[in-house]
Amino acid sequence: MLQYVNVNIDGATVRAPRGTSVLDAAIEYGICIPHLCHVPNLSDIGACRLCIVEHVVNGRSEVTTSCTLNVEEGMVIRANTEKIRRLRRNLAELLVAQAPNSRAIQDIALRCGVKEVRYPFRNSDCVLCGRCVRVCTEIWQARAIGFVGRGKDRHVDFPFGIRPDFCKQCGNCIQICPMTIPPCDGPMKPGEEYLCGKCESQLMIADETPGSCTWCKLGEGFGCGRYVGVT
Amino acid sequence: MTRLNSYRELEHLRQRFREQRQNITTTVMVCGGTGCRTSNSQAVIDAVRDELSGQGLDDSVRLCVTGCHGFCEQGPVIIIEPGNIFYCHVSPEDAFEIVYQTVMKGELIERLLYEDPVSGERFKTEAEIPFYKAQDRRILSQNRLVDPCSIEDYIVAGGYSALPRVLNGIAPEEIVNEIKSAGLRGRGGGGFPTGRKWADCMKAPGDEKYVICNADEGDPGAYMDRCVLEGNPHLVLEGMMVGARAVGASKGYIYVRNEYPLAVKNSRIAVEQARELGLLGNNILGSSFSFDVEIARGGGAFVCGESTALMASIEGKVGEPRAKDVHTVVDGLYHQPTTLNNVETWANVPSIILNGSSWFASKGTKGSKGTKILALTGRIKNTGLVEVALGTSIREVVFDIGGGGVNGNLIKAVQTGGPSGGCLPLDKFDLAVDFDILAEAGSMVGSGGMVVMDEETCMVDVAKYFLTFLQDESCGKCLPCRLGIDRMLEIITDITEGRGRMEQLDLLEELGDTISQTALCGLGKTAPNPVLSTLRYFRPEYESHIKEKRCPAGVCKALITYRIDPDKCNGCGVCLRSCVHGAITGEKKEIHVIDTQLCQKCGICRSECKFDAIQVV
């Protein structure tokens, strides 16, 4: 039988079954905690760090990722403090500077409040969120792709760079990739390092309601936990 | 050797070994640690051995090839007991003299004695040497008593005395309480109270529990764990046995990096020997306690020194950290409760059990008890491993033990704690080596690396060096560490190459703060420390790089030019011949000139010039 616990997230009492993560519990209740590497039904690795929250223990707050933190009775979580917003914005800024032409990354950066980017743009095709690797390993049990290399050489690849027979060519890795939404032709060029936020994602309203879910297009586009939970 | 089935049999064995050694009048202890081996101590060992058997002294003189003595700079080192005579820089040709004069006649060889670089005085015994005198050697002093490959030596020196105590008599709860009241804190970097870790692991539910010794030491310039594991592996094993008994573990791992071949070899031999005597295996010394240790070799990834990455590596997975929202004492190796401690932490355990917690806590400060081994390196006179009581000031370590800067240079800063630590300026040298005090000052004790820097070191360049190291060694799993360090390095490179802007300094601080709060593992969280601490204490150096496009220490190549001082140059032509790039021109006996277009700023001419005529501007 499911055991339920009560968690306080941003002042709201949220009831969730034991064993769920704080992030899942929050999404269920429409509390927006931006996230990228988290996908429902896949294991959480805490790689993108966007879903950071403050976990208050004995009056001291500790910054941790909500996807790897499991709910416990009486837990107090602050997901939308000034500090968290600042840290999240800095992380999203790093992310969007790495892959400025991805719509998903642009949208999530806007969601996190990034307007200007202080780093020169790089044009990377992958932000190493690991969604593809996990869907291949955990859902399809194929293990046809994995992480190769360390640090800045880390990339996703087939074993020894050759597509193995056990790759079922299911295409799930492509579907779930946040980089496969058609890019916008906005001001994403070196020297014009800012985000306009004028596209149909309607993320400007996110400014007024920073803590709650706006059903942003971003989520629909690459499968935010909220959208996946509905369908 | 036969298996020991009770405590009494161990004591009998100890007695027997001691009786066998009654005829030995003199012990010659030659350092066989890695530091001395690189100074050719193996040849010295062979020469002394040949000489001893040539003189027919095999029975009365014991040649003991020990682990590191700590004074690696003076290697190869020989200590002769009785008399505590200390010879340094020994060469194989000295073997005859040492055996004939010192061992047989008891006379000293003046030229092999240690000469103090400060006063020029020669010291006869080890105890008198200022380098050793100012130290508090609890662990390192045991190194010179034992041959790491001989369990006999360890038992004769009183080893494996703590084990019987914890097997009969002290209950596991009491062991944990003893460690708690001793105030032992993790020596690997974090400084987490060991007793609390053990207590949590003891209480955690689980069928099988593990203890792990973390010997994956990767900090540049640090080698204390290597030295302890190479020099006295049985001490570490005994500590692990006590820990395993306390938390209820039946299996242990020593995770040692493969780049430490001698540590791998010696710890393997130690485990074999302990198994042979029944000190590892089932029903140790006839008790109900069973425990075995395996050696796991690491591939040399810096990140595998992090506890969760290390456990993943032992399990055969990719060595990457995972989120520690549930601690490893509850959910560790193979999802079982696991106690992981550093080599030095384990090495401290047997003496706490034997001498009591109050003996251990008699040294140290309020929050940090006992002694700590520091690897003292950099631009100072005496480099090597030093063990001091926690609470000793940095000044004492650097000036009293280290002897001050090389060539009389002014010391500017000290970098403590390796890549995770920070740089402290000279006016902070009165701070004590203490976990809490150093953390407050923006650095850390860490694993105990201490790199001393003088006026010829550029602090921006130091920050760049550590960032390059961390960028190479970051596993790349989490975003702040992978991209954040990369961007920090990008900015620092801009600054050292003269493209820096003042607002980038604030960006560096903000980015550093973000990384330290959001990174996945402890290594990522501390990665910005070298930048943050140099920014905090040496901001003017950063500013002169940006505003004046000048490197005050004359290190950053893009911001310096070499020129020849016409007043000092006498046209000797040494620089002209030494320049590999052909950048220097000039006739004999006339003033030479450097062509700045061709000059690669390698600095060879500067080191060759005897008249100090080559300047860096």
Beta-strand share of residues of chain A: 5-15%
Mean pLDDT of chain A comes to 84
How would you write the strand order of the largest sheet of chain B? 12-11-15-13-14
**Helical segment count of chain B:** 26
The helical percent of chain B reads 25-40%
Assembly type: heterodimer
Please tell me about this protein's structure.
The complex is a heterodimer of chains A (231) and B (617). Chain A is of the alpha+beta class and 231 residues long. Chain A is 27% helix and 15% strand. Chain A has a five-stranded mixed β-sheet with strand order 2-1-5-3-4, sandwiched between helices. Chain A has a two-stranded antiparallel ribbon with strand order 6-7. The longest helix of chain A is centred in the middle third of the chain and has 17 residues, at 82-98. Chain A starts with a strand and ends with a helix. With 617 residues, chain B is α/β, with parallel strands linked by helices. Helices cover 40% and strands 14% of the residues of chain B. In chain B, strand 5 (114-115) and strand 6 form a beta hairpin. The N and C termini of chain B lie far apart (69 Å). The model of chain B has no long low-confidence stretch (mean pLDDT 90). Chains A and B meet through strand 4 and helix 2 of A and helix 19, helix 20 and helix 21 of B.
Topology summary:
The complex is a heterodimer of chains A (about 230) and B (about 625).
Chain A: E1 4-9, E2 12-17, H1 22-28, E3 52-57, E4 60-65, E5 75-78, H2 82-98, H3 103-111, H4 131-139, E6 146-148, E7 155-157, H5 172-175, H6 205-208, H7 217-222, H8 225-230
Parallel strand pairs in A: 1-5
Antiparallel strand pairs in A: 1-2, 3-4, 3-5, 6-7
Helix pairs in contact in A: 2-3
Chain B: H1 7-20, E1 26-31, H2 34-38, H3 41-54, E2 61-66, E3 78-81, E4 85-87, H4 95-105, E5 114-115, E6 122-123, H5 130-133, H6 140-143, H7 151-156, H8 162-167, H9 172-182, H10 194-203, E7 210-215, H11 224-231, H12 233-247, E8 251-257, H13 261-276, E9 292-298, H14 307-314, E10 338-342, H15 343-355, H16 357-361, E11 371-378, E12 384-389, H17 394-401, E13 411-416, E14 422-425, H18 435-440, E15 449-454, H19 459-473, H20 479-496, H21 503-518, H22 522-526, H23 529-537, H24 539-547, E16 562-564, H25 574-578, E17 584-585, E18 593-594, H26 604-608, E19 614-616
Parallel strand pairs in B: 1-2, 7-8, 7-10, 8-9, 11-15
Antiparallel strand pairs in B: 1-3, 3-4, 5-6, 11-12, 13-14, 13-15, 16-19, 17-18
Helix pairs in contact in B: 3-4, 9-10, 9-12, 11-12, 11-13, 12-15, 19-20, 20-21, 21-23
